[in-house]
């Protein structure tokens, strides 16, 4: 076990629950550390159900193309914890990460605090002590009581599309979940909101207006779409003809459009050339990413291997749409290799692939106690009408898929599975 893993294991034992939404435990700890959350560069806070990470990836690419230095906070990580904290453009150095985690651990002095809370406090310390021009801050879950929601005066807030997810913590309806997401709105901070279902839109609009905020809305105040292989963006300031996003999938046009609108509405120093360079250079691992290397080599030469971290029904709809788009240019039999956490429904995830996926091969995510068993996912897939079978490992699953020549194989269902795949392939992020 590495020193980082040993520290993280100790921190994970400070609270019996993995998730316990509250700010009461971390605020005293932040105070004891000198309130680092009040010493950050301008913050753009991002909440929503899907698309948060991609939207942040675009904003980072735009800002860096414009010559700015950017901190980023994302979760979860795929392979190494360091991926969660990017300091002025680079993943946090392991030695510095360890020292900061141990410093925060010592100040906490054994008090009850969740893993996400204490590690987020450490991230705020690192962000406050490292110069940068901006901080792009992603919520972990929800908004109102999310651990990141301690920044009193963000430069701006973004709400990506809100849908059903984490119902056990956030509510059973889109309206209830939207109430939580709206908790990141702050008086005096501008807001940009992605495409919403009507019940979520009503909640977000009321919450913003209570704080004197007039949000700008995707599909109403600004628009973006794919036209002749380009991204065409339009808002009240005019029209931009831009290159297509480097991230694959028609849904990435929506994510890129949201990021462009935020850059313009928040007054970020990004011109059209920087937007174009950012769209060409953006990187966000395990989001419809083609996989090369030793795992790909287990398939026949004519097959494709893709990795996607989508894990709920909203994400699987985007993934299925991307598969249909790919079939238009090269028809191929689709094989899904999927593993899921037990907070997700395999049948809900697979509903969008009816008539599209020829075979489903299921896995138990290695090292995850709260993962669905492969045989359970396979049984649920068969109930939904799919040809499905469990497999003991990703290598075994790929060998099974290899008997279908020229297949399009997609590994999906969980970011935790995506991380395991990247580690086994020897291609971790950065």
Q: Can you put this structure into words, describing what you see?
A:
GO terms for molecular function: ATP binding; dihydrofolate synthase activity; metal ion binding; tetrahydrofolylpolyglutamate synthase activity. Residues 307-414 form the Mur ligase C-terminal domain. Its cofactor is Mg(2+). The protein has 430 residues and is an alpha/beta fold. The protein folds into 2 domains: 3-281, 3-Layer(aba) Sandwich (UDP-N-acetylmuramoyl-L-alanine:D-glutamate ligase); 289-425, Protein-Tyrosine Phosphatase, Chain A (Alpha-Beta Complex). The protein has 15 helices and 17 strands. It is globular and about 60 Å long.
Overview in brief:
Helices cover 38% and strands 16% of the residues. By secondary structure, the protein is an alpha/beta fold.
Which runs of at least 5 residues are low in confidence (pLDDT < 50)?
none
Compute the separation of the termini in Å: 21 Å
**Strand line-up in the sheet with most strands:** 4-3-2-5-1-6-7-8
Cα Rg = 21 Å
Number of strands: 17
Helix content: 25-40%
Mean model confidence by pLDDT:
94
GO biological process, one term: folic acid biosynthetic process
Domain Mur ligase C-terminal: 307-414
Cofactor: Mg(2+)
Protein name: Dihydrofolate synthase/folylpolyglutamate synthase
């Amino acid at each position: 076990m590495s020193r980082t893993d040993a520290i993280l294991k100790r921190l994970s034992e400070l609270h019996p629950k993995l998730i316990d939404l509250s700010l009461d435990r971390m605020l005293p700890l932040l105070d004891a550390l000198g309130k680092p959350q009040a010493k950050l560069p301008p913050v753009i806070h991002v909440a929503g159900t899907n698309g948060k990470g991609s939207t942040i990836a675009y904003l980072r690419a735009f800002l860096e193309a414009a010559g700015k230095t950017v901190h980023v906070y994302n979760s979860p990580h795929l392979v190494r914890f360091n991926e969660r904290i990017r300091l002025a453009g680079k993943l946090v150095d392991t030695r510095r990460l360890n020292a900061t985690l141990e410093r925060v651990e010592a100040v906490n002095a054994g008090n009850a605090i969740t893993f996400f809370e204490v590690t987020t406090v450490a991230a705020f310390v690192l962000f406050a002590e490292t110069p940068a021009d901006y901080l792009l801050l992603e919520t972990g879950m929800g908004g109102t009581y999310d651990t990141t929601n301690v920044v009193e005066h963000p430069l701006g807030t973004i709400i990506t599309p809100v849908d059903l997810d984490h119902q056990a913590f956030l509510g059973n309806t889109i309206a209830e979940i939207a109430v939580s997401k709206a908790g990141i709105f702050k008086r005096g901070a501008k807001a940009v909101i992605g495409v919403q279902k009507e019940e979520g839109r009503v909640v977000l609009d009321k919450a913003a207006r209570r704080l004197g905020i007039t949000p700008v809305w995707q599909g109403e105040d600004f628009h973006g779409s794919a036209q002749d292989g380009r991204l065409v963006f339009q808002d009240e300031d005019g029209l931009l003809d831009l290159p297509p996003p480097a991230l694959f999938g028609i849904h990435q046009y929506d994510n890129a459009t949201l990021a462009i609108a935020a850059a313009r509405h928040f007054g970020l120093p990004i011109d059209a050339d920087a937007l174009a360079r950012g769209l060409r250079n953006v990187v966000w691992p395990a989001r419809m990413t083609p996989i090369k290397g030793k795992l790909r080599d287990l398939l026949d030469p004519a097959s494709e291997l893709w990795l996607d971290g989508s894990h709920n029904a909203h994400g699987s709809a985007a993934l299925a749409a991307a598969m249909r788009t790919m079939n238009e240019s090269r028809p191929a039999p689709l094989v899904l290799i999927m593993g899921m956490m037990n907070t997700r429904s395999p049948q809900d995830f697979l509903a969008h692939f009816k008539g599209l996926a020829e075979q489903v091969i299921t896995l138990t995510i290695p090292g995850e106690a709260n993962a669905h068993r492969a045989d359970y996912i396979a049984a649920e897939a068969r109930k939904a009408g799919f040809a499905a079978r469990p497999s003991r490992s990703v290598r075994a699953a790929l060998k099974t898929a290899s008997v279908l020549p020229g297949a399009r194989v997609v590994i999906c269902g969980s970011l935790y599975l995506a991380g395991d795949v990247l580690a086994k392939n020897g291609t971790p992020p950065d």
